[in-house]
Structures are given as structure tokens and as C-alpha cells.
Amino acid sequence: MKLAVLNLTGGGASVGYRRYVSAVLPRLAAFDEVEKVLCASPAALGVEGWLEPSPKINFARCEPFRFLRHSPDPGLKAALDAFGPDLIFVPLERYIDYKGLPVVTVLHNMAPLAGVPTGGGLKELLKAAAQKHETKLAVSRAAAVMAPSDFVRDFLIAKAGAAAGKVHTAHFGPSPVTASPSRPKGLGDATGKFIFTAGSMERYRGLEDLIEAMPALKAAVPGIILAVAGSARPATRYYLEELKELALKRGAGGDVFWLGSLPDEEMAWCYASCSAFVMTSRMESFGFPALEAMQHGCQCVSAASPCLPEMFGEAAVYYPPGDHAALSARVAEVLSRDASAKGRASALALERAGKFSWDGTASRTLDVLRKAASGA
């Protein structure tokens, strides 16, 4: 099988997308039945730096993806013509038509299809509408669609009109755990118990639940603080400012530490050192922070939102999203556990994390690619 992997991004990529391509592409290339791989991407993406050299993987350039353009740009077409692929694999929700070859796509971003709010303003609304159009087109025209969770698969079938036989679940895998954790400078001289949460600053993350829960938690656990890792895009900076203002109004302004984007070493320290990890999202397609928290044996509290129970399983206690009183009660319950109960919770988290594997993701993906290439 000669596989063309087209990174049809606008020129950039999320951390999750980079993790996916870095983990799956080399594994696909390692299978005997994959003869060669052509990996095309915009120059700004720098995919070559994500991967170890492989004699099977060759690189090519393509222009950044543009709304409503579904044919290869001239440079990409020339590279594809020279390569002669049997199949097109687009690792995100985009469609391209090249000589009628079957296309397999991966759905990463559920927000546009589900109408989940992200940023604000007219530009963001137009962007979401464009993303929704491109996602629906990619799903409808693809020979097969890879979904990172059963929630995404079921949503595409029930609400996006996808045929059940062409949508396949392949859970993502874990990130490497760094051996050299480092305390974030943003925590200053704060000591004692702290709650940790992580992820990009998007409105669908529901972080107001944690801010609203802080007064009750401070009363139940004196000295408790909240550490928030994650950066805001220009279109979501207003949301971060709203959260900071809410913290001040609730008397928790000095108890919430906004750490921004952290390197892996500092993320690892936060996971390993926190008293509880909390995830408040209203919706996730997969949720890498959930898996990372379990990899570090965290005591986990999660909103009962799609697809978080699918990720955490029995390794978390749940609260109804939006119910900050229930959240504060669940977190206080977790923080009051004795050493034995903490050990059991940590063991459950590590066991659950062990069920996710990039090898399994690649194997499942290869099976789907093989069937798509054969027209099955």
C-alpha cells in the first residue's frame, strides 16, 4: 500500500494533533503492508521535526488549507502524481479530491459540529460555520472516518448522518511521562494541597464550575488553591478575563494560579503533586488531559459530560456539569480520603491509563485503511 498522508491544516496544529501524527504515522510506516508513505504539509507545520527518520517516509509541501478548496494545489498535485498513492489519509476533518481515490479522515474537533461555543465575536462565529461545513463535507465524502471515542462515533451516526459502517472508533494513546518533573515558577511560594486542571482556554471547558466551587472548598479545606494550566487564543482571551473577574468576585482571586501553557516537565510536576485533578469540560472528543492525569495516578474528579466517563471509567468521581455545589462536594470527598483510599484511587487511574495504546490506535487505523483501499 502506498499511503499519502495530507496534513491539510491552515498552517498550524494543536498539541493534540501533533501528538497524533507523531505517534501514528511512524507506526503505520512500520507495518509490512505499507510500502511507502508520502507526508505532505504546509512548511510552517514543521512535521519533519516531529518524526524520527524513516526510509519509508518521504516529505512534500502543500499550501495551507483554504475554505472550499478541495483539490490539490499544483505543487501537491505534482508530488502526488509522482508518488502514485493507493489511498489518501487526512488526519483531521478535511476532504480532498485526487483522482477519485478513497479518503480516510480523522475527526479531532467536535465543537463545530456540535455547536459548542468556543470564542466570541463575529469572526469566531464565521470560523465555526466554515469548520462545520468542512467537517460535514469530510464526513460525508470520506470512504471511512476514524473517531477518537465512541461518543464521537455515535454522534456522527445519529446527528451528522454518517453511515454506521464507515465510522470507526480508535482511541488515542498516552503521552510519554517525563522523568524530570519541575515545579512551575507560576506557583510562586504556594505550598500545601492544590487542585489542578489543564487544557486550552475555551468556553466549552466550563472552568467557571471550579471558580464557583472555590469558596466552599476553601471552607472545607483551609489553604487549598487551584492551579490552572492552559493558554488562551486571541478569540478566547475574554473568557480568561471573565474567569479571573469571577474569581475576584468569589473571594478567590489570590487562591487561583493561572499558569498559562506549561512545558512537559512542569505539567508532569503538577499531575504528580496535585491533591486532585479536575476536568470540567462540557464536551470533549477525547480529552488528552484526562489520560495524562491517569498516567500520573491522579485522584480524578470529572464532569459527567461526553466523552469523559468513556475516558476515565471508574478512575474518577463525577458531578453534573454546571453544578458547582456538587463539584465542591466531590472534590472535598476526594481530598478527605485516607492513605489507603488514595492508593486504591491511584492504582485505578494507572490501570485505566494502561488500557490506551498508540499501537492499538495504529493497528485499528491500518485495518480501516486497508479496507478503504480495497473498496470493502
Model description:
Helix 1 packs across helix 13 and helix 9 (288-295) crosses helix 12. Helix 5 (150-159) links the parallel strand 6 (144-147) and strand 7 (167-169). The chain is an alpha/beta fold and 376 residues long. The strands form two sheets. It has a seven-stranded parallel sheet, with helices on both faces. Strands 10-9-8-11-12-13 form a six-stranded parallel sheet, sandwiched between helices. The protein is built from 13 helices and 13 strands. It folds into two domains: 2-173 and 357-374, Rossmann fold; 185-353, Rossmann fold.
**Elements, N to C (H/E):** EHEEHEEHHEHEEHEHEHEHEHEHHH
End-to-end Cα distance, whole Å, is 15 Å
Helix/strand/pairing category: alpha/beta
CATH-defined fold name of the largest domain: Rossmann fold
Helical residue percent?
A: 40-55%
**Mean pLDDT score:** 95
Q: What is the overall number of helices?
A: 13
